[in-house]
Amino acid sequence: MWGDTLWTCDAMIVAGFLFRAVLGGILVASVPILAARLGNTAGGLLMLLPVVTLVSLVYVSWDVGAEKSGLVAMAGLLGLPSVAAFLAVVWLLSSRINPFWIVLSLGLVTWLIVSGAIYWLIEVRSR
Q1: HEC string of 11-39?
Q2: Where are the alpha helices (DSSP H) in 39-65?
Q3: Model's pTM, two decimal places?
Q4: What sign for the dihedral angle of Cα 87, 93, 91, 103?
Q5: How many CB atoms lie within 10 A of CB 74?
Q6: Is 57 within 8 Å of 73 (Cβ atoms)?
Q7: Tens digit of pLDDT for each residue in 58-87?
Q8: For 78, how many CA atoms within 13 A lie in the half-sphere containing its CB?
Q9: Span between the terminal Cα atoms of the chain, in Å
Q10: Under DSSP, is residue 5 helix (H, G, I), strand (E, B) or coil?
Q11: Which residues lie closer than 8 Å to 43 by C-beta, 6 or more apart?
Q12: What is the 8-class DSSP label of residue 96?
């Protein structure tokens, strides 16, 4: 009986993972298609479609309820400066540095530094 429970739990985890991967993949794959049809401005706005956030909030609400999803969404607002810093670095360096993966790497490092500073200010400093 215990083995059946573990298998069911493992199967649910795998099914949840696959659902998230498929839903996230569909959303991400649709962005360049829509951007090609709608132009650069729409493409930029669609690029910021909160795919990970959308799928994550759906699962948080299913797992622990809509109220907790709201709290997670509120906490997610704290990450906006990190995203802005990442995008600013990519925008400023993309015409100056080649190959582009270096630009993306510098953007990710910037995101990590800003996110770490936000985490430190909120979690570590408030103790």
Answers
A1: HHHHHHHHHHHHHHHHHHHHHHHHHHHHC
A2: 40-47, 51-64
A3: 0.69
A4: negative
A5: 9
A6: yes
A7: 888 888 888 888 888 888 899 899 999 999
A8: 13
A9: 45
A10: helix
A11: 31, 32, 34, 35, 36
A12: T
